[in-house]
Each structure stands twice: as structure tokens, then as C-alpha cells.
Batch of 2 targets.
Target 1
Amino acid sequence: MKVLNVVDDFCTVEINGVKKSCFIGFLERKPEEGEYLLVHAGMAIKILDYQSAQEIIDELALLIDGELRDSE
Amino acid sequence: MNKSFDLFKDRELAKKLFSHIKSKVSHFSNLKIMEFCGTHTHNIFQYGFRYAFQPNLKFIAGPGCPVCVTSDNELAEAFWLLEKRGVGVITYGDLLKVPYNGKSLFDYRSEGFSIEIVYSAIDALSIAKKKSDKEWVFLGVGFETTIPATSALLDLVVRTGIKNLSVISFHKNTKSIISALGSLGELRVDGILLPGHVSAVVGWQYFNDINAFGIPSVVVGFEPLDILYGIKELIDMIEKGERGIKCAYKRAVQEEGNRKMLDSINKFFDVTDCNWRGLGNIKNGGFEIKPEYSIYNARKRYKIENIEVLSKQNQCLCGDVLIGKIEPIECPSFDVLCNPDAPLGPCMVSHEGTCLAYYKWSRING
């Protein structure tokens, strides 16, 4: 869920146009506007790490490209 | 900073990865993979993966629906609190229609009993403050994902000194259930997709007990590419004969989990034996409020002891569905006597329930 604003221990997050309030007191740091959170039952569990996500996508793209080359 | 994670919904990459997995599993016959988490069960249906790899690979739904594994004993406690102590009950909406002995919290609410629904546990505080002429009990339901929310509520109750709110814990320990299933010989699977949300709280090493059963496992996220990537990783492990746990959801899950949440759970809760629907009493299967906070524990405050559990016979086989023994369509009541409007058991009620997933997505996907 995308962070829209942060006030004290709470923030407003948005997913598919729906806005919700969530508690961020358990996060390792305060999230910034525009960051994405993993949220469950109104509790933010983790600020999602974009670099880790991109690494997996890159790994998959490489795997698929390699297969296409092998099949040619 | 504005980096979307929609890249895990990339249709083209998903198609190619799907073909890759399809080709890999064609070398196997009758592989069985259990998805522990109820949300995964629904997503595997929603994305069209459930039957896509058959007959080579079959998915088996596991016990990862917290409302579904809430036992009759616990529902009996909630009903007793309403009837015998006249308190109001606050809980998550999913629990409302779960039947016990022919009745649900929804039925109680229709009869005028005070039952409030919350999105988050900490919302219970404002209800208790607003309706201060009544005593309220929050029913804490769920796995390690929702326990921190109950801990946060307990922390607020302690700090504010509010007198008319207490908590009863129906919380379950996912770590114990893997061992229990293995010990019962019910883990007859080649691999396990481990839950993403729970792992984000507890860390993926939490599930190391699986190693005792020699079953490879992968922590998985919830988008289409997350699930496909998790399946690919699991197939790779099975192919190579690898054991252990891998994490395929690293943007959300770390080895050690969320330290603050774990500290909060440890502050307010002890691990205790607990009754799970379908599995009975599980050693270390639940969480109970620590003795030093017993004045906030509704079991102690209202002296709940040995409530007789009544079992009105019905033809619900939720227990067998929860441990992957049968598929919902093998239950004689499925879509005959039992449907979302008239559920016989919790698996047809909860949005994470396996029976509801089969009912809903089989219709949509044909």
C-alpha cells in the first residue's frame, strides 16, 4: 500500500483508490510519502524494499531471455 | 520516491515464467505442493494457477486461515461472555458468521447483543471509550500477523488505564502447526509455500522446524509473479533434492523478521497449548496473555472455566479440509447444504477459507 501522508504513529495508505489509516509504530523507521508498506489488519509490518524486488525481476528476465536464446 | 511494485503483475513476464514452470513440471508426475496461507489459496485460484499444472503438479490448501482454525471451544467462550456476563464483543468481521452449535455472532447481533466489528484491533479502544457504559471484550483472532495488533491494543489499555475493555486470545502459533502436521503424518507433500505476511513478522528462519521433515519450503508473496517465482524456486529445490527454506519475498521478508513486533508479542504473550479446529489440542499451538497482565485477560476477569462445548451434528468436514486431507469438493455438503449464505463451517465463511475459495473461484474460472 502506498503511503500518502504520515502523522505521528499513523499514516494514510492507498491501494486501488481505497484509502486506509494504518499504525506505523512497529516499523524500523518512519516511512516517507510515496513509499510502499506491507500492511495487515491496520498494522504496517514492513517498508517494501524496491531494490530486492527489482533484483528478482531482473533474475527472472535473465532466466527467460536465456531460455529463448537456447531455443533459437 | 514513487516506485510502484506493479512490476510483479507484469503479464508478459508472467506468461513466460508460467511456460517455463509448465515445461519443468512436465518431468514430474503427481507432485504435491501445499500452500499454507489462505490468501495464497485464493490467489492461486484467482490467477488461474490452481489446475494449470495438473496432472503433474497439484496444489493442496493448508491450515492457514486463522478464522477457520478457531475452535468450537473458543467460540463457546465468546458466546458465554455474551450470554452469561452481558459484555459486548469486539472482533474482526470474518469471525461474525462462523457457526457454532447452529448459531453465530451475527445471529447474536440480530438478537440485540452488542457486537462491534473493527478493521484493526486498536480501534477497539475508541469503541470502549465511546460506549463507556458497557464492558467490552476484544476477541483476538489470528496468527503472528495479527498478534502485534492485539499487543498494541493491550499496550494502549495498560497506558490509558481504561477499565471497561479486556482481551481474550484465540491467537494461534503457525510454527507449532507445521510440526504438528508433520508428526501426525499429514504433511504428505513434496514442498510447501510458506506464508508471506506471517514471515514478514517472524522472519523466515522461524519455520526451521520443517527441516525435520525433509520438505523444501519457500516463503512467497502474493502478486502473480511472486507466486510463480515461489513455485519455480520450489520446483528447482525439488529437482535438485535440496531441503531447507528459501525466501522468494525478500522485499518484505527478512531472516530475522520485525524485531519491534516480536518484542511486543513477547511482552504480552506466552506460547501455550491450544485447540485448533481439525487438529485438536496442539502443543505450543497458541498464545495466551502473560500472568502479569491477567487483569486485562477476559478469561481471568470473567472467570471462564471449563465451558461445555456442544456439538450439534452437521455434515461439515472443515477439519479434514484444513489439514489437506480432502478437497472441499469431496465434502458431501459442499454447494449442496453448505454455501456462503448458509455456511456449515468456517472454511465457507472466512475470506481466507478454502471452501469459499473453491466455491467462489470455481464459478468464475469455470
Note: The mean pLDDT of chain B is 91.
Target 2
Amino acid sequence: MTAQDMISPGFSDPVFQSQAAFRALLAALSEPGTGQRVAAEIAPPEGLASATATALLTLADYETPVWLPAALRDGAAGAWLRFHCGATLVDDPAEAAFAVIDGAADAPKLSAFNPGTDQFPDRSTTVIVQVAGLEGGAAFTLSGPGVPGNRRIAPQGLRPGFTAELRENGALYPLGVDVVLTHGDGLIGLPRSTRIGEAR
Amino acid sequence: MTLHQMPAEDAKPAYNYAYLDEQTKRMIRRALLKAVAVPGYQVPFGSREMPLARGWGTGGIQITAAIIGPADTLKVIDQGADDTTNAVSIRKFFERTANARTSEATEEATIIQTRHRIPEAPLKPGQVMVYQVPMPEPLRRLEPREAETRKMHAWAEYGLMQVKLYEDIARYGEITKTYDYPVLVNDRYVMAPSPIPKFDNPKMHMSPSLQLFGAGREKRIYALPPYTSVKSLDFEDHPFRIQSWSQPCGLCGAADSYLDEVVIDDRGGRMFVCSDSHYCETRRAQGHRGTMLGDAAASGLVQPSSPHPEEAAGAAVSKDDPVVSGASTSILRDAPDGAPQDEGSREQRM
């Protein structure tokens, strides 16, 4: 058995760890730009940040197709997700309910994922973007529901043009994907309702 | 009596924490995250059978069950009151299934499940309001077909609602809707605020707390993130107005709260009291006295309860108000059916 075939454990206490993680996700998406932490002490598989793995354990199951980059899908992360969540791993980004992408990778674009339909905008993909850091990068401002006035975030390691993609995504409102930036055990929510301001 | 074995007093059924199974909670949690991402849009969800009838707050209970944790303090109100049947039952349900810490104090609660009211005390950041919603679709009485109302929301085709409000003005000179008054959320979706009196609508606008809405029978969840624009529909020449009353609360003298009319005898006697029981009790504990507090105690409408000595001792009592013995009182009343009462109220420009 190679190390890649070993599946690391999930939650040790699924009821309360998933509840706490969900509240962090709910706070992140209802108050965009605020830094939230998932406290769950899990050993994520290679390629997934602790916050990414916790979010997927909390939300993904057999009802939610998940899209992963090929390297992750064929590696420990794919096996881990199949085992713990029972989630289907799909090849087509547009079929996914949840997706994990690397913020620095060129593809896929946010527009490759499912934005929902005009009658069912809730059927869109939630895209978890793993970044090199949640602060210290190029700053931009947020406004909209959940943000009193303006809020400023500066995630590190996003590909060039990512804020433009976020703006295009926001222009589809009420359609569009919802983005969660993760790094380590921290996360920041950027739902489609958030308006992205100019870089400062 | 061997056939009917009574369980031991402390025997608890072996349910999962907060009654719902984890798969159901995940489904509700996913719906909640989409609901906060699209404020005011009604997300369909797989509403479960609950151990009480649909229409008794099953939507709100399922949301509370999906979000509650050991760190939470739960407050449940029914028409503003903590001590009415629905509120007491739901509070006990979560004490039993989730070992929940409960409170009647608005400021102590982290989750406030409510039927048809928003507390008078200002909500704080970090608090979560959970509304029980009987009819989530604001357009349903205008268009009975779900397939059609879904298109109307998809295309923001809300002319029919404006026509309805206009017809009210044409016929009666004013918009006659006094509860469940439709609102426009984030300049996009028309939303039913649940049957709260329109008095409470302005509290939703830019509220610092997260507001979640659950309709168990209609299988819909929707949400308002904090600091979200919530505009009550109106016309430039007929602006939105909330109710006001000709007299303050008879028990605590509050002039800024939503009042219920209570019939006190069979000779036409009546009084107006705060609908928010905790707000009223807090004010009385602080020494505020309404003009009818003495009468109410005498006629058995108000029952003196154990006073809080430390609060009563420091409370300033105004001289011109009648003072009754017992610093704190609690009112006895039943939960009114259906909509909040409006009789006796009159309109006043906001």
C-alpha cells in the first residue's frame, strides 16, 4: 500500500465539528470579506487545505457532485472525498455542486462552473479557491449585502485577472457561482451578491 | 399495567443531536448557504416530517436544528411572547433534543426563533433570527401557479404586486396590508417578511443580525444577510407607514413598542400591552409603570411573580404612576390565532 492509497481520517466528532464548521461558512458567506476559522483538527489529504477539507466534509455528500483538478482527483484527495463524503467526482466543471481550484492556476475559469438558472439560481457551483494567503496580497474592496459600507481584503496568490472574473460573475447576479477563499484553517466568503471594487 | 410500561423520568429517546440526522442537516445547510448568497430568493429544500404538525413552525425548527450548537443560547418567541404555547413547546424541544441553553432575554440569545414578531430590543451582530414562515411566496395570492411565480421572480416581473397595492389605495385610500407586508430585498427580489406586523419591517433593513426564514410546509428557505437593503413596497405619493397607537402600553408605559389589544372584561373594557413580553417585563423591572398596571393586577390579568430584588432596589419609580406591590409581573394571555392584531391602531407617517 503506497502512501497515496492511505486515506486519512475525517472528523473525529462529526456532529459538533461539522456544526462549528458550518457556522464559520455561514458567517463567511453572510458577511463577505470577514476572515473566519474552522477549528476542526483534521489531517487533510495532500493538496487540500484544512479549511477546504473541513468545508467539504461539512457540506458534500452523495447528492453533490464535486469537481477537483485532475492531480487531486486521481490522488489522495479524490480517494479521501469518495470515502468520507460518498461524493461523485465529475470531469465537467459545469456539473459540479462544489469545486476546488488552485487560485494561481490558469484554468478552469470561474465561468466554466455552473451559474444556476434564472428560475433556480441556487443550483450554482460553490467554488473553493485555495490561495497562498488570506492577507498580504493585492487589496480590493467589497460592498453589497453583508458588508456595512466597504470591506477590504488582500488575498495572496490569485491568478492575474481573478478580480475581473469575480466582477463578471457578480454581473450575472442573481446567477453566478459563490466563491470561498481558503488557506490553512482560514476562509473568506465571496458570494455572487458581493460587488468587487477597484484595487487599492 | 404491564402492557404500558412507563419510561423512566429521565429516559431520553436516542435521537441525533438536535433531532435531525446529519444528512438532513447537510441538505439544509447547503440551502442556507445559497439563501444568504441570493438574499430574498426562496431556495427549495427537502422539508422533513417533524414531531409536530406542519404549520407549527417546522420550517423554523429545521433551520434552528441545522445551525444550533453547544455554544448557542436559544430564545423562542410566539407573537412576541416567550410564554405562549408554541414558544414553550419549541424551547422544550431543543432543551430535550439538543440540550440547548435557553433564555428569554433578547440580548443573551445567539439564536432567536420567532413566530410573527421581531423583538423590540435592538438586535446585535452575531445574533441569528430564525423566522417561522407559513407562506413564503409573496405573489401566491396574486398568482396561484408556482411555475408562473417562479418566472415572475426570475425576471423580476413584479408589476402585479404594485397593481395590487395600487388597487388598495384606489378602493380604500391606503394600502390595507398590515402584516406580511411585501418587501424588496437588495433591489432584486420581492420577499414575504413572514407575518410580522408591518411595524417590524423597518427593523429588517440593514439589520446587524443574520435573518433566516424557514417554511416547512411549503419547503422553502430564504435569508437576509446582515446589512442588507430591505425596502417595504410603496408609492412616492403613498409612502410606507407603520402602525401607531393612541395610548402607550398599559403595563409598562412604553410608547415605542408594538401593542396588542387585550379585552379585559365583558363590558367593553380593554387595554393595550406590549406584544414583546420580555421587553415589557424588563421595563417594569426598571421601574416603568403603565396606567393600567394596578387595574390589571386587581382583575387578575397580571400575576405578580418573584421580583428581582437587585433590579427592583435600584429602580426609579416615577411618582405619578400607580405602583403595585411586587416589582416584576408577568401577564397571562393566550397566543392569538392568525395574524397579529391591528385593531385599535391607526396609521402614522414614518
Note: Chain A touches chain B through 38 residues (CB under 8 Å).
